[in-house]
Queue: 4 jobs
Job 1
Amino acid sequence: MNERARALRNPAAAPATEAYGAVRSQTLNQAGFDAAYAEISSWPGYAATPLVRLDGLARALGLARIDYKDERGRFGLKSFKALGGAYAVANVLKQRVAAATGRKDIASKQLLSGGFADLVRGATVTCATDGNHGRSVAWGAQLFGCRCEIFVHEHVSQGRRDAIARYGAQVREVKGNYDDAVRHAAATAAANGWTVVSDTSYPGYRDIPLDVMHGYGVLAQEIARQSNDEPPTHVFAQAGVGALAAAICASFWLRWGPKRPFFAVVEPTHADCVYRSLEAGRPVVVGGDLDTVMAGLACGEVSELAWEILHGGANAAVAVDDAYALEAVRTLARPAAGDAPIVAGETGGAGLAALLAARDYPDIRRTLALDAKSRVLLLGSEGDTDPAIYREVVGRTAEEVLA
Ligand SMILES: Cc1ncc(COP(=O)(O)O)c(C=O)c1O
């Protein structure tokens, strides 16, 4: 067993020729992705985030090509999470308006213009968060005009709490880990008549996290367009509850069918719930404090919806120690010859962390089917979401790195 990383082939991976199929379409589907794209791309400030080619890094790692989807600029929130939580908030509020007025044709544009402000103001949305999802829900609540209460666990940094509060949300601490905060948010919402806008699903709670995941599909649509619909050979998707990974996996499967890329899920060593679940062939809960510098990935339970896609859709899983995540952040900040510097938080750099592990351990490179012909897509899911931590890790601010 390697000391600092391990990789696993998914024994239940669907063959490349297997169609996405009607059963999976009951979870994530093209109509849902299209609806989310139409809405989100109509919001003020929408712009596709860059897909950056890192040829120097690819050469250094013995790969043909690396493309990095840089989510730092997403709606000013510094992570892809802006797409999911806020989209689900809009849908919650549209349903509230529909219930009160009978109008089912509301678009988020009408909420933005304040058309139903009186109805919307009475709603409260809530969730548990490691930071980024809560920021998205708080932003969505402010954008569309409802109240917001966000629950954070003990390990969420002050910088991340402040970033949520800046959007006018109440931020409350829960003792324990992320999963404790999820349970607490659900109980408090039930007692107060609030709506939980969670990025994770569980039995009986699926519709809202499904909206969140369809929102994440915007990333995949942009990537396909930016790469002229030419699929990479590999995708490395970091997983907390697995919603991002599943959304990207499903979207590429629907789009590219048998040409879809080899799909690898990346997690921290001590919060490897998708890895353990793929190994066991059923969802496995990982306990403990799940502590990792990859704050967005500190989750011990895979989302039910995510599992329905990843169980067959993931080809492999990788678990990496924090040291690789930190090396990835620094590598992106001080890039190989010819590449532009990139500002990534520790969670955002997780895909590169897996490639660094594959550089060090030939068995991991083999398990991930990486070779000199590989064209790898990395999901740069966040920028410097906590600027103080970023500066500590890199020794410079984001602005200095990019200067
Ligand atoms: C920046 C970032 N990347 C990736 C993830 C993982 O997403 P998911 O929990 O959907 O697996 C998160 C989750 O919070 C995140 O904040």
Job 2
Amino acid sequence: MLHVDRLTKSLPDGRVLLNGISFTVSRGEFVGILGASGAGKSLTLRCILGLTKADAGSARLVEPDGRSFELTSCTGRNQREARRRMGVIFQGFNLVKRLRVLDNVMIGRLAQIHPLRSWLYGFTDAEAEEAVQALRQVKMETYADRVTGSLSGGEMQRVAIARAIFQRPSLFLADEPIAALDPSNSLAIMKLLQPLSRTTPVLGVFHQPEMTARFCTRVIAIKRGAVVYDGAPGLSHAELEEIYGDELMQVLRPTPPAAPPAGSEPGPAVGLLLPNHPS
Ligand SMILES: Nc1ncnc2c1ncn2[C@@H]1O[C@H](COP(=O)(O)OP(=O)(O)O)[C@@H](O)[C@H]1O
Ligand SMILES: [Mg+2]
């Protein structure tokens, strides 16, 4: 369980970035964070991870066995242990492209084994089998020996999720995990995250309200550093308008049509294909 309590962060010039962010994430929840660009979504995740120090407030992770980590104030060994308890999935995958897929998955637990063992012996057979199992969970087990750099974006994101699964975290944190993917890969990733959340809660930032409405159990909206909505995942148009302001049309943009079948007539040139000309 994650308890975020009145997180506050300001810049030296007085600009308030986070203005008392509070929410909880419990077992069995898949919580989506929505909000316009610059609202403070990533910063909230960074404070939870202890990557940015909040000025005030706290974030506490309570493990199923009752152990508790003060994420905003712990340091050193405690902080490393706390970070290990959180499986992070980013938009940019953060994979080592020259390594095999399986090696990238095993990196998920590198911080948990003694440095001497990682140098001398590497992972045990049981650990390797568990990493393959994590790949199986994201339907990528046949890619285990492939060089990661040769995969597509959707495949890399699946590997990143397998790496987080292999870490056996007590919370998954995802920052725009589908922002760089096409609609069908985005859907596939949401379909992987949803069942994961039943055993380990997922807190993720998303830019697509239609995805959070369909897959999340709850939605939190952040606007100018404050929580302005915390409730059912299906938000009304008026609520979304209030949250996004001028950005609303961007997030509600209809899904682009699939590419025409090979050999069909090319459509009219659009977007970047048009030469710039004064209007
Ligand atoms: N380390 C930082 N130093 C200064 N400003 C920051 C820092 N991190 C984030 N910000 C600012 O805080 C605001 C929220 O950023 P962020 O949480 O990244 O937005 P988003 O909701 O798009 O993820 C933005 O205005 C951003 O410029
Ligand atoms: Mg962000």
Job 3
Amino acid sequence: MKQYKVGLVGIGAVGTEMVKVLRQRKFPASEIRILATRERDEEIAGETFHVLETKAEAFDGLDVVLFAGTEGSKGASKMWGWEAVKRGAVVIDNGDDFRMDDRVPLVIPEINPEALDKHQGFIANPNCSTIITLMGIAPLHRANPLKHMTAVTFQSVSGTGRAAIDELDAQVRAYAASGNTPANAGLANVQKSAYPHQIAFNVLPQIGSAKKEMPGFTTEEAKMTFESRKILGVPDLQIGCTCVRVPVFFAHSVAIHAQFTNPFTPEQVREIIKTSAGVKLIDDLSTSQYPLPLDIQHGDAVGIGRIRIDSSRENGMALWCCGDNIRKGAAQNAVQIAEEMIKRGLI
Ligand SMILES: NC(=O)c1ccc[n+]([C@@H]2O[C@H](COP(=O)([O-])OP(=O)(O)OC[C@H]3O[C@@H](n4cnc5c(N)ncnc54)[C@H](OP(=O)(O)O)[C@@H]3O)[C@@H](O)[C@H]2O)c1
């Protein structure tokens, strides 16, 4: 079997998981070259990697580069993404910088793998909440076109990166050591750098910043809208969304209320989920069975449950999706894209 030289830019929450996913899925990698902001050694899952400082020539000879650096003008993808393509690699980017770029396919391999066929060297991984939501919705949409969707997310702190995981952990420990009581769980002198408010024992109805083009909405909410339209190929799909940060370490959950073109029964929806790739049905309210972050975290499949008719809208259906944001929402989806490209003879 052909072996590939794999580059990895960024070794935070997502980058670290990418190494694990590459090894777990036995990706045919003859080399894993890790780049970050500075040179050092890092131990990941029992292996020591010599991390190199990211510079143009560090991409030479690589077949595929998975980007897991931070976003924005000083972020890895903007600085180095197209440089890596120029030097002969296929880039798969986890960030938001190029997702809506017309040159860039935005891909969930179980949903729109055919978008890869027209790639120009640069592929984007969708936002974690978009992936988890569409893993539940897209198979239903294929059977019965979606007309409208309202989604409310419950997103874990790992979605903000490694520093936010440490911040929630530190706040919980500070509470335990503080002598405070449940009636007084606000902590006066606690570290608050990942979020503008304490996240322990709180929920924050803001993920990202205010989106200029969508007054009143956040950048994360806009991603759900625009990315879902691009992936499903329905440019005028109506989507309402509220994204909420919750004090959970790993796995995002989404409550979805959707309207379809034709009537659906919960039994039909369960049958579709049972036979779709990458999802598992966990749906028995009578025994309190539904997907939970603590059960879903570190796993590959997106759990779907709480399937029921939403009688507030014509042909309405409600469901609950829960998936590991670092794995299916990022690292695993990116590696699956690389695998799909190999399967299609694109790398
Ligand atoms: N966390 C999630 O659930 C999730 C889900 C989907 C998508 N994403 C996206 O995936 C990306 C990575 O997220 P994360 O949560 O892993 O972030 P993170 O924990 O903050 O780690 C960021 C990594 O990027 C490196 N980096 C930053 N700027 C760089 C540059 N200019 N050149 C080279 N390396 C650079 C950092 O290097 P140093 O280690 O040297 O500082 C660090 O290793 C982001 O774009 C994020 O939006 C995250």
Job 4
Amino acid sequence: MRTVHVIGAGFAGLTVSLRLAQKGFQVELYETGNRVGGLLGTDQTEHGIAERAANALIRTEKAEQLFQELGITPSLPLDSSKKRFLFRGIPKAWPLSFMETVVTIARVVPQILLRGKKGFKPQAGETLQTWGERHLGKIPTRFILGPAMQGIYGNEITNLSASLILGPIFSQTKKGKYKGLLTGPGGMQDLVNHLEQRLHELGVKIHLNAQIKLEDLQGPVVVATSAKAAAELTRVRYPSIAQVLSRIQMSSLMSVTLFFAKAQDKFKGFGCLIPRGFDLKALGVLMNSYIFKDRDKTYNETWILGGSKEEQLLDLSDTELLKLIAEERFRILGQKDSLLDYRINRWKKALPYYNLQLEESLADLQEVELPKDLHLHGNYLSGIGLSKILERSDLIAEKIASQHE
Ligand SMILES: Cc1cc2nc3c(=O)[nH]c(=O)nc-3n(C[C@H](O)[C@H](O)[C@H](O)COP(=O)(O)OP(=O)(O)OC[C@H]3O[C@@H](n4cnc5c(N)ncnc54)[C@H](O)[C@@H]3O)c2cc1C
């Protein structure tokens, strides 16, 4: 049986190992930490669960299939989560005035009629901000596009790459209808546990606390770590690849879950995104108790802060951070409630910065000829979200299988 080595047991490493094992490969999975899951994980508290990073996957066909084959009954969003807020002085379901909406429609509709979807295709080297202002105008870019993208990529749109983020929409051949999200009933740790269990059943050998060197491995290797760790791993054996990878910038993000004595019910919905320019640090808040069922034992919210311009926030003490959030929560939601418990997860330099530098680095990576036995995987390559990572796991496993038939 052919052996494949997978380095990194985050969602990318776990799912590619699953697909490879299902194709009959002997998989050796190496993880430097003492647990699998990487950024994914769920803390149990006496008030309910607190997600460490991601709270759900986009409900694509592949995601649904994964849950089904692992025997997880997915937890789907509640109806209350359909409402989403954008902050403009107060949380609003639609942040534009009547006139601003008319102006935006008058700008967008002719472009659709004249050039169709193609006319919106981003240009290489264009930021999301430039793309937005070109197609939608300044106001919708600031109050809708900006906060929405910053909520996903954890950074302001002034430097985010339009072609990396929006490009895939234009190259998709089959577009499925957006069906919302899904997670495990006990949170994302449910998914991690089921993946780990299935890998054991399939005979995958998981090596925790592993200090592995690429140069010691023979045969196909999947490097499924962050870009930063991938640069370090490839440094000796593939210096030209390492050089490109080391130029990818990483950014920091923090999730702060707060459990309150009283539920706020003034704004019931998925959460609220916060545009820049209001002198607020928070990027957004998720109203967990209104998103998934069984999360309302004690009303809780998750606040997201950080990004490359606000890295220093991750150095605040818990007390300083809680004070900052309490002040901003009062300005945003108008709420002052007593806090019962909290969980803070500081993810330093953990996420790829989807900026123009990443766009350049990925273009350079295409120029460097990757050795046949080296496969790069992770959230810096074809999307930061879990459903995109899952798609790439399938592709990599298929490629390795076709090379070793
Ligand atoms: C606050 C936050 C909220 C998010 N929310 C969402 C969301 O709601 N939905 C969504 O789809 N995505 C979300 N994301 C993004 C998503 O969680 C990540 O993109 C994804 O989990 C990354 O998975 P990965 O396997 O690529 O990387 P990682 O999870 O970083 O895993 C990489 C693994 O490699 C290991 N490793 C590193 N170096 C080595 C080495 N030398 N040898 C062996 N192992 C090594 C690491 O220890 C780690 O376990 C969020 C991220 C954050 C931070």
